[in-house]
Amino acid sequence: MEQQRLYKTIYSVAKAINSSLDPSRVLAGIVEQVTGAMQAKGCFIRLLDKSGSTLEPSAYYGLSERYAQKGPVEVAKSRLDQEVLKGRVIKMADVTCDDRFQYPAEAKEEGLVSMLVVPLTARGERVVGVLRVYSGQVREFTEDEIEFVNCIANLSGLALENARMYHALKRASELASDFTYRTFED
């Protein structure tokens, strides 16, 4: 039964990705779907900023606004994210006791205990962010759940790439149209 729920969620996420080129809308749907499928407390997607030094909040579900906006996740200060950005999957039994986690006090206040973090990749192997799943109690994530979250992270990367390519093509078309219009006017 559990695998069936995860497969249905993958299908729903794929449909959502196909239905919109608005990354914020797609990512918001993804974190909500993952939270429900994993029966988790919450889910968070953070994307690297242009400099690659900070993970910016992009979408979250099941978490308070206060927690989501607690502060920047600076890659240099987060050993956890340094590992994940190298392509590793990280499981933490208790985020409040693991020194790789940057905000343990805030996590405790939010009621977060266990966490699964996977890299969010785009264009093959380029890591562009992280997908985090939080539990409100000690939890051992299964191999099926880890594969599921990895699959969703890859779909999320695909959604971001599709949206970026669409917007780049749209902008190029607008510039070409503007250039053509000006050329014929001259």
Can you put this structure into words, describing what you see?
The protein has 186 residues and is an alpha+beta fold. Helix content is 51%, strand content 20%. The protein is built from six helices and six strands, in the order ααββαβαβαββα. β5 and β6 form a beta hairpin. The radius of gyration is 18 Å and the shape is globular. The termini are far apart.
Main beta-sheet strand count, sense and barrel state:
6 strands, antiparallel
Number of domains: 1
CATH class: Alpha Beta
The global form is: globular
List key phrases describing it.
6 strands, 51% helix, 6-stranded antiparallel beta sheet, 6 helices, globular, 186 residues, alpha+beta, Beta-Lactamase
Write the layout of secondary structure elements.
Layout: H1 2-19, H2 23-38, E1 42-48, E2 54-61, H3 65-68, E3 73-74, H4 79-84, E4 90-92, H5 104-110, E5 115-122, E6 126-134, H6 143-185
Antiparallel strand pairs: 1-2, 1-6, 2-3, 4-5, 5-6
Compact summary:
With 186 residues, the protein is of the alpha+beta class. The chain has helices at 2-19, 23-38, 65-68, 79-84, 104-110, 143-185, and strands at residues 42-48, 54-61, 73-74, 90-92, 115-122, 126-134. 51% of the residues lie in helices and 20% in strands.
